[in-house]
Automatic annotation (TrEMBL):
GO terms for biological process: sulfur compound metabolic process. Pfam families: TauD. GO terms for cellular component: cytoplasm. Keywords: Dioxygenase, Iron, Metal-binding, Oxidoreductase. The lineage of its organism: Bacteria, Bacillati, Actinomycetota, Actinomycetes, Mycobacteriales. This is Dioxygenase TauD/TfdA family protein. The keyword rRNA processing does not apply. It comes from Mycolicibacterium confluentis.
Amino acid sequence: MSSITVSPLRAGLSFGARVSGVTLTTLADEQVRAQLREVFEDRGMILFEDVEPGGRLQVEISTVFGPLKDHPVPTVPRVGQALHPGIIEIGQAPREGNIVEIDGREVTSWLPWHFDHCYNNELNRAGVLRCITGVTEGGETGFADGIELYRQLSPELRQRIETRNVLYSLNLRFRDMRFGLADGFREVQPHAALQKTIDYGKQLPRAVHPAVWTRTTGEKVLHVSPWMAEGIEGDETPDGDQLLEAVCRDVLTKITPYFHRWRPTDMVIWDNWRMLHAVSGHDPDEARVMHRTTIEGDYGLGYFEGHAVGDEILEMTV
């Protein structure tokens, strides 16, 4: 049997694992692939260390956890589509995209806490990221465990949000965030290329997902995305909004995240049904390029408001 090494991501964390020794050769062993799936289910996130460069290994690691999901927008850059289908490129030229100010510092590529596909009825199973072009400072990807967030939430808020559903829309504009927007936030430059998508998203049905759901293993997961949340289903009132804001604020106050500083030999997979993730942002004068694959799947709990039919653009991940 081929061997890999598994260790905790960081002392004191309730989630995450470090795995080394993963190669195309070790992945040919079905026992190794089964072990990786077990680690993923147990820890919610895996940092693969010392991986060899190139898209072939990223695709092979991704397929351990399920079939790949392609991005529905044809203009999104593909990477080696003929050899390595399913890899997209995420990045922008210096000063090209969104620029925001957080606590007096201007950054680009900043993303607030969220889970992928919150604006769609189906949630992809997982995302896999690799850094191609890093930055001098910042550009870290943060991860937080929904199981731990549920445990940390105040008992009063936990009781009130437990059976509620949250509405989400495809509104990527940070300044439009209604819940949990970071203190000290200011939009300096919007992402002009996304405005067409934002305008189109206003015509689409809103998605509905439970604020709390229970895994087959019994753990309850607080799964609320502050980004793109519109309110509580059936309670879009001042009281309902106050509850959702209180939950988001409690999460931001008590969250115990892991922020990963990228190296060229790193690759990360996270459970989109369990984890929230965010990006710290970086100097707008620097470029940062990531390669991503998305794992297909769904937990079967989401739907569109009024049982409406969705749109192909809602299949994208951001």
